[in-house]
């Protein structure tokens, strides 16, 4: 919420080094997006509503999406 951007490897970066913004503007550094999460074990946060609207993925999942999705790729999120 602070707008601070932490680089990969920084202890303050709990997003796991990946951030994909869900916006017509493409990949960016703010807003609602897809990201990893390294602060807790996945069992503590998977399948729970615990963010400001972002989609958290396990590190192996966000790594795959980050390297396969091209800018402009359509995203559909089902509950």
Note down, in words, how this protein is organized:
It is a single chain. The protein is low in regular secondary structure and 79 residues long. It is 13% helix and 10% strand. It contains one helix and three strands, in the order E-E-E-H. The chain has one helix at 59-68; strands at 19-21, 33-35, 55-56. A three-stranded mixed sheet has the order 1-2-3, with helices on one face. It is globular and about 30 Å long. The mean pLDDT is 78.
Strand count: 3
Cα-atom radius of gyration: 12 Å
Low-confidence stretches: none
Order of helices and strands: EEEH
Please describe the biggest sheet, giving its number of strands, its sense, and whether it closes into a barrel.
Answer: 3 strands, mixed
* Number of helices, counting only DSSP H or I runs of 4 residues or more: 1
Shape: globular
The percent range for strand residues is: 5-15%
What is the end-to-end distance?
A: 24 Å
Specify the helix fraction band.
10-25%
Spatial strand sequence of the major β-sheet? 1-2-3
- What number is the mean pLDDT? 78
Structural class, by secondary structure, is: little secondary structure
């Amino acid at each position: 919420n602070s707008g601070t951007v932490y680089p990969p490897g920084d202890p303050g970066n709990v997003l796991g080094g990946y951030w994909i913004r869900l916006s017509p503007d493409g990949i960016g550094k703010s807003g609602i997006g897809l990201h990893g999460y390294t602060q807790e074990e996945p069992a503590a946060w998977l399948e729970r509503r615990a963010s400001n609207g972002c989609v958290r993925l396990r590190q192996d999942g966000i790594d795959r999406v980050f390297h396969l999705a091209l800018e402009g790729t359509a995203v559909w999120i089902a509950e």
